[in-house]
Design goal:
Length: 181
């Protein structure tokens, strides 16, 4: 059981670190967008690559922080069933949700996304906009990063559920335990 707690904690820490790091892309995207707006409306000019950049920063940030959002319970759920539930019932609901929905979803996205990303890398795909950013293939790689980070967090949720159902939630650090509302 301590091995399960270690895995849950390690995955949680990974997603927390990635989430906190990539959340800074919001600031970068806002700054670039501000520069684009000033260029356009004050100086009557624009750089297309900068327009691509703030959209790409936003996309990369959302894909990279999805696992962190799952960690902190920030995704939308049907609260009518979940919120009033006790810890054991939440563990059962999470286990069912992860096994029936989240992990199969991750598998489908990986299967469809891998070839899509691979083709983009082979072509060294760039923006379709004239004067746009090179390196679209790097942005598309975040699809696979999304699957890995969300899938790992799903596994951590399932393992946490097992720990709770076996009565070993105390092995987890407080930050990775269920919160009773």
């Amino acid at each position: 059981m301590q091995a399960l707690a270690f895995i849950v904690t390690a995955i949680g820490r990974l997603n927390a670190a990635v989430g906190k790091l990539f959340s800074w892309l919001v600031l970068a995207a806002v700054a670039v967008c501000f520069v684009v707006v000033v260029q356009r409306y004050v100086f009557s000019t624009t750089q297309l690559w900068m327009q691509d950049l703030y959209v790409w920063l936003n996309g990369a940030m959302f894909m990279a922080v999805a696992g962190y959002t799952l960690l902190i319970d920030g995704h939308v759920r049907v609260d009518i069933l979940y919120r009033p539930a006790g810890i054991r019932r939440k563990a059962v609901l999470d286990l069912i949700g992860v096994l029936l929905f989240l992990l199969p979803f991750c598998a489908v996205v990986w299967l469809w996304g891998f070839e899509y990303v691979q083709r983009s890398w082979m072509l060294k795909e760039a923006s379709e906009n004239p004067g746009g950013m090179p390196g679209l293939f790097i942005l598309k790689s975040f699809i696979l990063a999304f699957v890995v980070l969300v899938g790992l967090q799903g596994i951590a949720m399932a393992l946490r559920s097992v720990l709770v159902l076996k009565g070993h939630e105390g092995l987890l650090p407080e930050a990775f335990r269920y919160r009773q509302e």
